[in-house]
Amino acid sequence: MKKNKVIVFQCIIIPLLFLKTTILFSQDFLSSGKVTGNTQIDAQYYSEDSKLGITDSSLNYKKFGMNGFANLIYTNGNFSAGARIEGFLNPMLGFDSRFEGIGVPYWFAKYKAGDLEMTAGHFYEQFGSGLILRSWEEWTLGYDNNIYGFNAHFSPYKGVMLKGLTGVQRYFWEPYENSNRGIVRGVDGNFFLNEMFGAMNESKTRIELGGSFVSKYEKVPQITYTNEMDSLAINAGDTVLWKIKKTYQLNLPYNVGSWAARANVALGGFNLYFEYAEKGNDPNATNSYIFKKGKAMYSTLSYSQKGLGIFLASKWIDNMSYKSKLSESGNPPMLDINYLPAISKEHQYSLATLYPYATQPNGEFGFQGQIIYTIPKNSTLGGKYGTTVSFNYSMARSIEKDTIISAVTGTQAGSDGYETKFFSVGDLTFYQDFNILLEKKVSSAFKFKAAFYNQEYNKHVIEDEIFDDKDIVKANIGVLDMTWKFDARNSLRMELQGLWTEEDDGDWAALMLEYNVSPKWFFAVQDEYNYGNPTEDKQVHYYNLSFGYTQESNRISLRYGRQRDGLLCVGGVCRYVPASTGLTLTITSSF
Amino acid sequence: MKKLIGFAIAMIFATTIVAQTESKATFKLPAVDIQNVNGAPFNTKDIKNGGKPVIITFWATWCKPCIKEHDAINEVYNDWAKETGVKMYSISIDNARSSKQVLPLVNGKGWDFEVLLDPNGDFKRAMNVNVPPHTFIVNGNGEVVWQHVGYLDGDEAEYIKVVKKLLKGETIN
């Protein structure tokens, strides 16, 4: 009996007590923590539309598309963990069919102990402006190049931040294998001198320096080229034709390294940022397998004081596509290790975004200048409420290239591809945009914005990767955006837009009326009419009816009509949408 | 012996239930490393207003309703600050493409509130923001007590109403 009691005690009571402490611990841990999250569901029902050439078969009989996600983050003091569930059933129009499915492509656990923060799982990170490393996501674009691995942030001293990471990137739903992508490793240091050195604490000049190194390891594929040569030989009096066949294999690097250095100096109203990056030889599908090194420079300078802002930016990029799988290229962009910012301004009005610019990673020079000036209140020009005027100019051009052809491959592949001088500017315009925006509040009940844009868009370069000047769209765009406020809650907004061009789809006109009842309701009607399309059948009205309801952080909106692809902003929220005809339901919520 | 086991089980359940009853409707502002408007390091735990309420709003230079919201708030911001002591932090989620344009835009527009940069969306993700504009109101203890998505003309009146309720110690919602 006594022995039995001991056994019972050992086998039941001890584990129970142990269990109890575990439960108590986990309960305590859970109860003092907090779960937050957000979710978004976009559901579309597609109709056939002969005007847009949409039929059941062009839709692949996918009458219904739904993209949705739910994010959950658990936070308890210095610990946090989270996951994102994503579902594409089926993916909405404009999203790659390889996204089809449901799963958890992102989860993490993060802990901060003193000056060290560790993340295990999936994470997003950016070194400097991202020229050699940036992982990020944009749900509405379907873009996600998160890194799955380990990330550490360590601040050993005031003003110093060191980062280190290793991992593999997301590729749709495919699990990592060493044959389908490489491994990314990187370190970064950021040094804010004013905090590091006591003597500089009070200095008006604020200096920040940084540097990073990133490397990619990939089990490279074998890429071969075969040359055939004829050879005549005389054998026993007969002429014999020999074929000499030689096979060459590209000596692809397993490791591709890159580094970047940056500085940010602020003094009074001035702020200067400069970053330079280089990448080792990285033959890949985007650069047609050339062995040249990559280079990039990005710098900005701004001066501002109250009522005046001036901004200048320039960049020069050569052969900087950097992906964790060398044979990956094209759309949708996947496995990007770095980020090359487009230098043009991102516009707010729909017709001004009809011809948007995207960076050309194989080589471009870009420049941007902007002035924002607010004419003070109670002056002749400024009126009672002040008037804001903004000018912006941006351009992107080719860089000079002297092509090298490899004797073995007969193309640029396998050679350095071309020669170029750092900061050289070529003759070919990729994109140019001059615009002016006037914002004026006339009275407490009426305000307006007026804008004019002159854009030049090299369609061949931006859409087809053909580097010539045979398909350049020159467009003028005018916008008038007026708001009447009837009382504290009710307002009406009207947008009039026109786009005039001799090229591409010709002229467009757009009208939008939006009635808002703050803080909950909006109703909108919108029509974009491509009245100048040279093909009469394509003179389409892109009409839309929409309404939305907001209750604090919940928002439900319903839209019926035709949507051309582009940036959509109605009823207070902006996002990118693909082309479609039909009914769209969007639910977003945060908690 | 059975009693002992029974007692142990009962204890476990009792303490479990006690631990579960506590719940909060708010959440603490997360501490995330982002940047001030000059690009220098800034941690969001330093979003403070001496025990008074704070408004946090997420925006971007390319977001039309956000600019509208900011212009509307800027017109009344000094009156709000005088009347209630409220402070606003406006978080730009512009990425490397446009984050350096934020400072000249803010000054050019003459906006008076604090502006911070979140160029890779770290704070945006920690706060579960889907799309801008998204506005939060934080009480004097650093807890988020109210949030709102989108901006319609006149919405700013709601923000200050919530701030005044907080100052009077009334419950939100």
Describe the structure in your own words:
- The complex is a heterodimer of chains A (591) and B (173).
- Chain A is mainly β.
- Among the domains of chain A are: 1-32; 115-341, no CATH class.
- Chain A contains three helices and 34 strands.
- Chain A has a 24-stranded antiparallel beta barrel. Chain A has a two-stranded antiparallel sheet with strand order 6-7. In chain A, strands 8-9 form a two-stranded antiparallel sheet.
- The longest helix of chain A has 30 residues, at 2-31.
- Chain A is globular and about 105 Å long.
- Chain A starts with a helix and ends with a strand.
- With 173 residues, chain B is of the alpha+beta class.
- Chain B is 38% helix and 21% strand.
- Chain B is built from five helices and eight strands.
- Chain B has an eight-stranded mixed β-sheet.
- In chain B, helix 3 links the parallel strand 5 (87-92) and strand 6.
- Classes of the chains: A mainly beta (591), B alpha+beta (173).
- Chains A and B meet through helix 1, strand 1, strand 2, strand 6 and strand 18 of A and helix 1, strand 1, helix 2, helix 3 and helix 4 of B.
Give a quick rundown of the structure.
With 591 residues, chain A is mostly beta strands.
What is the strand content of chain B?
15-25%
Instruction: Please provide the ordered H/E string of secondary-structure elements of chain B.
Output: HEEEEHEHEHEEH
Structural class of chain A: mainly beta
Question: What is the rounded distance between the termini of chain A?
Answer: 57 Å
Overall average residue pLDDT of chain B: 86
Calculate the terminal CA-CA distance of chain B, rounded to whole Å: 52 Å
**Portion in helices of chain B:** 25-40%
Please give the largest β-sheet of chain A: 24 strands, antiparallel, barrel
Instruction: Please report the number of helical segments of chain B.
Output: 5
The oligomerization state is heterodimer
